[in-house]
């Protein structure tokens, strides 16, 4: 990419401004920013300007014709180098990591008790997933605790997705304790190597297995997150109907934009059907997005973020994986 336009106030282009520039450029080809955000899986903004994205051949040819794009070519990084990079997450230079740390502390909620945590995750229920899908999956998991997707996006600062699964995030201790109880989470512990890409996501076999506990779960009502904005109730009903008779399929819509918020409630006539759907559908792909299925809590809790969620000032940051 050519260098992004200089900021209105002058100075160097920031990470957030560069990523916004990349997303806007790719959105001109794909048609919308959400799809562009999900397609980008790596980016550079320190000295050279470039990004990696997962798109089709035709879209790549169209992208090469967009003003500001210098070249588009296949990402053919050395396999061993790429595997190592994919497993440890996106690279963060020492300088950028320090800037990120300072920014998080400056914009954290007023309690001043935010800490850095390493979250080990269980293997998803599907065999083939992309990095973009896993980042979205981790974001949806954290959103269930923070109550706000933007807060979840900016809290995640490191991921692992190919062999060992997990992510690192900057949240309050109370949120971390609640996160440990979310289905699919193996463990949550302090990130003792913040500032290093050497993270231990592997853990050991002593951690809980939610697949074992899910087999005995009986519930009529399910909470589904990670939905594509374009998934309809008809599509969702078709995916969950094979497990039993449905009472309700309700996708929650934003009152202002009239768009899906990305989550829904499913209710069956029997607990056996709900339990079977919970076990089988968690981690499945619908409309290209990996969904997370959990037991629905009380209705008031489903719609209210916990008091420990991050403050609005945190929304000023941009995730290195998603923007918006």
TrEMBL record:
Residues 220-298 form the RRM domain. One of its GO terms (cellular component) is chloroplast. One of its GO terms (biological process) is chloroplast mRNA modification. The keyword Iron-sulfur does not apply. It holds the Pfam family RRM_1. It is found in: Plastid, Chloroplast. Keywords: Chloroplast, mRNA processing, Plastid, RNA-binding, Transit peptide. The keyword Plastid applies. One of its GO terms (molecular function) is RNA binding. This is Organelle RRM domain-containing protein 1, chloroplastic.
């Amino acid at each position: 990419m050519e260098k992004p336009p200089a900021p209105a106030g002058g100075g160097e282009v920031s990470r957030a401004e560069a990523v916004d520039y990349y997303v806007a450029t790719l959105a001109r080809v794909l048609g919308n920013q959400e799809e562009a955000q999900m397609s980008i899986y790596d980016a550079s903004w320190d000295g050279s300007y470039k990004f990696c994205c997962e798109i089709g051949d035709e879209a790549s040819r169209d992208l090469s014709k967009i003003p500001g794009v210098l070249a588009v070519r296949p990402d053919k990084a050395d396999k061993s180098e790429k595997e190592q990079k994919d497993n440890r997450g996106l690279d963060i230079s020492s300088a950028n990591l320090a800037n990120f740390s300072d920014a998080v502390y400056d914009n954290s909620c007023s309690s001043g008790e935010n800490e850095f945590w390493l979250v080990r995750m269980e293997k998803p229920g599907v065999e083939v997933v992309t990095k973009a899908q896993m980042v979205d999956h981790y974001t949806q998991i954290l959103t269930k605790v923070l109550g706000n997707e933007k807060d979840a996006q900016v809290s995640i600062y490191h991921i692992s997705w190919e062999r060992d699964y997990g992510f690192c995030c900057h949240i309050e201790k109370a949120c971390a304790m609640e996160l440990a109880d979310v289905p699919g989470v193996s463990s949550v512990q302090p990130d003792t190597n913040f500032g290093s890409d050497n993270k231990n996501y592997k853990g050991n076999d002593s951690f809980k297995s939610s697949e074992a506990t899910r087999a005995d779960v009986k519930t009529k009502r399910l909470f589904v997150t990670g939905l594509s904005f374009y998934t309809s109730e008809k599509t969702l009903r078709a995916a969950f109907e094979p497990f039993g008779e449905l009472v309700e399929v309700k996708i929650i819509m934003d009152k202002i934009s009239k768009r899906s918020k990305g989550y829904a409630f499913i209710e069956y006539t029997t607990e056996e059907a709900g339990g079977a759907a919970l076990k089988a559908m968690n981690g499945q792909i619908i409309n290209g997005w990996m969904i997370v299925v959990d037991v629905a809590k009380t209705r008031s809790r489903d719609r209210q973020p916990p008091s420990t969620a991050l403050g609005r000032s945190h929304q000023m940051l941009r995730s290195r994986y998603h923007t918006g």
